[in-house]
Automatic annotation (TrEMBL):
Residues 14-43 are annotated as: Disordered. This is thiopurine S-methyltransferase. GO terms for molecular function: thiopurine S-methyltransferase activity. It catalyses: S-adenosyl-L-methionine + a thiopurine = S-adenosyl-L-homocysteine + a thiopurine S-methylether. Its EC number is 2.1.1.67. It comes from Mytilus coruscus. One of its GO terms (cellular component) is cytoplasm. The lineage of its organism: Eukaryota, Metazoa, Spiralia, Lophotrochozoa, Mollusca. It comes from the Eukaryota. Its main location: cytoplasm. It is found in: Cytoplasm. Belongs to the class I-like SAM-binding methyltransferase superfamily. TPMT family. Keywords: Cytoplasm, Methyltransferase, S-adenosyl-L-methionine, Transferase.
Length: 257
């Protein structure tokens, strides 16, 4: 059984397997990094390096974990994100077809997302019956899906091609992708550097992470000069997520000061 979170795929298998037996069986590649939890009959493996191509394939096969309802952390804390401002330019990294995009747009805000896999973006506009156009954007080696009113701009490209020369001055970031827990350290810093470069004056960033590898100390180390981090809320994982070794979700609020 597979659970995909951000850039990570967790695979739960029902047979007892040890790291040694995996190594011997030839599966101990860079892709399968480690068994996080080992019970008598269940093992959890974390597969890193979910490439853009693998994601595009998952979207084509309808195997992504799109969530059709608003995230509880979002509904509970969106007032903090928006902070009584109008037409807030909001960034949604690794957006898929997140329902929070439509919610923000309905409230009059501007939403910019980045996602690989055209299918997610096409489906976002078509399922929500929002008219859109598509143009090539060579600077990101991808495409831009834009609503007719221009307030939703979803870039179909590799996140690491996106930067503040393309879009900048964000007033809010909704980061529910969990990507920070997924990538290797060098990539985590690269990811954080892009996010920081996009955060404009008084930007509020709500970042939801599971608790496998990023903690409060790490977040505070990344967001130092010019930023303040609060550990704002915590939600316990449901049974399904618990079976993948995920205890809960932590919400961090990161302020640009
Ligand atoms: C957990 S899913 C997000 C699902 C979304 N919340 C929804 O409800 O549809 C993570 C998303 O990140 C995208 N993604 C993963 N790696 C990416 C990368 N390097 N660049 C751009 N998008 C990426 C995938 O295509 C996928 O849609």
């Amino acid at each position: 059984m597979i659970f995909v979170c951000g850039l990570t795929m967790y695979r739960r298998s029902e047979r007892k397997r040890t790291q040694t037996s995996r190594a011997n069986s030839g599966h101990a590649t860079a892709a399968v990094k480690k068994a996080k939890h080992q019970h008598s009959d269940v093992s959890i493996e974390r597969e890193d390096h979910m490439t853009v191509d693998k994601w595009t394939k998952l979207w084509k096969e309808d195997k992504t974990n799109h969530t059709p309802k608003l995230c509880t952390m979002f509904t509970k804390h969106v007032d903090k994100l928006i902070n009584s401002r109008e037409r807030v330019k909001t960034f949604v990294p690794l957006c898929g077809k997140a329902v929070e995009i439509k919610w923000l747009w309905d409230k009059g805000h501007e939403v910019v997302g980045v996602n690989c896999g055209d299918k997610a973006l096409k489906e976002f506009f078509e399922e929500n019956k929002i008219g859109y156009s598509v143009v090539n954007i060579p600077a990101v080696k991808g495409k831009l899906y834009k609503s007719e009113d221009g307030r939703i701009r979803l870039y179909c490209c590799d996140f690491y091609q996106f930067n503040s020369a393309i879009e900048s001055g964000f007033g809010a970031v909704w980061d529910h992708s969990g990507s920070l827990i997924a990538v290797d350290l060098a990539e985590q810093e690269k990811y954080v550097d892009i996010i920081k470069s996009l955060m404009g004056e008084k930007c509020v960033n709500l970042t939801v992470l599971d608790e496998l590898s990023v903690n409060y100390d790490k977040i505070r180390t990344w967001f130092t000069d010019g930023f303040r981090v609060e550990a704002s809320d915590h939600a316990k994982a449901d049974r399904n997520l618990k079976s993948f070794g995920i205890k809960g979700h932590q919400l961090y609020t990161i302020f640009k000061i």
